[in-house]
Amino acid sequence: MKTSEFIAALAADPVPEPVRLGRRVAAAIALGLVVSLTIFALLTEPRPDIAEAARTPRFLLKFVDAFAFALPSLLLTLRLARPDARADAIALWLIAPFVLLGAGVIVELTVVPQDEWLIRLIGDNSMHCMGMIPTLAAPILAGLIIALRPGAPLHPALTGAMAGAASAGIAALIYAPSCADDSPLFVATWYPLATLICIGVGALAGRRFLSW
Amino acid sequence: MKAQSAEGPPDDPWSRMMRASIGGDEGAYRRLLEDIGRSVRAMARNAFARARGGDADIEDAVQETLLAIHLKRHTWDSGQPLAPWVYAVARHKIIDALRRRGRRRAEPIEDFEAFLAAPEAEDPHALSDARKLLMTLNPRQRDIVTSISLDGQSIAATAKRLEMSEVAVRVALHRALKALGAAWRRSVT
Question: How many Å apart are CA A209 and CA B57, to the nearest integer?
């Protein structure tokens, strides 16, 4: 078939409605949040000492860090979904949550006696954390993948992985109020492990559903 | 990148033509695709020359790229210039095409004598990917795509011949092109 003949078929095809990926992603997150918050309300409850905890720097660090991870991950996901967009500065912002958490760990190691390090790291809720974060992330990740389907990512698996990271960051924000382990040693161990699960699932979903 | 959207929509010819196309100007869209096709052909020719490819493969890569651009055009951000978007899609698809060609070449030619003796096909485009992939469509879809591309029929004439409404022909054409894109992708992975 000649290319000019092929073009005739393309030109006869009706014009589709423009798609705004940003809006689709915003809608996906809103819907995903509703589902995740419902799951959260059914399966867990906020810790009883939340009013006191909310004033401690360790507790606050969990939220700030989750937010600092979720936001650049999400923006990066949107960028990756477009073939002509560059990741540039946003990718650098992803360093921030790791620096922040690293600083938290160093402070914790200085103020807490050495024989308590391992106790704090293991905590009481590690398995709960590992189960809950991927569970709460799943509806958000599913929403993101559906929202990004019309996109044209040059690296579908990477785009899916970033969506997985973003969903884990948002899930951590939801989960943190119920988790009684506030030590940065705990957070720096288990939250990234839970996030890695979401990234892996996201990468597989991206390769399967975002290729074009 | 942000500065562009602050100054209003991009004013280069391709971006303007694409905006007109999205506004329903079929002629502008056809000219834009012809124009993009020429650029993509040059890109593909360079890439294939480095990899020592054949001419038919180049045209397949051009058509696959045009189809990808066509199927994704509604996600182009009209606040950004079109050219970088087109080139990114083209690079992506040309790499796919080169990969596929590499695999084809690796297939052993068992009956070499017969292969050499085979007469050259009359239509050099008869064995194009697009032609082969048409066979994966259902008969009605294939009929519509063939009618509009190879036979150069209008939507109206095709609709009349098949006793369908024009809307139904367009819907079927759209489904067919999407199916063609999916079949092309499957032939890579």
Answer: 27
> What DSSP assignment string belongs to B7-70?
T-S--SHHHHHHHHHHTT-HHHHHHHHHHHHHHHHHHHHHHHHHTT--HHHHHHHHHHHHHHHH
- List, for residues A140-176, the tens digit of each pLDDT value: 999 999 999 999 999 999 999 999 999 999 999 999 8
Query: Are B135 and B142 spatial neighbours (Cβ–Cβ below 8 Å)?
Result: yes
Residues in chain B where the model's pLDDT stays below 50? 1-5, 109, 111-122
Is residue B66 less than 8 Å (CB to CB) from chain A? yes
B121 to chain A, closest Cα gap in Å: 13
Cβ contact, residue pair A86, B21, below 8 Å: no
Query: How far off is chain A from B183, nearest CA to CA, in Å?
Result: 10
- pLDDT tens per residue, range A36-55: 999 999 988 778 788 888 88
- Report the distance separating Cα A165 and Cα A192, nearest Å: 10
Using a CB cutoff of 8 Å and minimum separation of 24, what contacts does B149-154 make?
Answer: B149/A1, B149/A5, B149/A6, B149/A8, B149/A9, B150/A1, B150/A5, B152/A5, B152/A8, B154/A12
**Residues of A in Cβ contact (< 8 Å) with B29:** 10-11
Judge whether A82 is closer than 8 Å to chain B, CB to CB: yes
Contacts of B149 in chain A (CB under 8 A): 1, 5-6, 8-9
Contacts with A, B 81-140, CB within 8 Å:
84-85, 87-89, 92, 125, 128, 130-131, 134
**What is the token pair recorded at B59?**
């045209």
Assembly ipTM: 0.80
**Predicted local distance difference test score (pLDDT) of residue B55:** 66
Give the gap in angstroms from C-alpha B136 to the nearest C-alpha of chain A: 15
- Cα B36 → chain centroid: 11
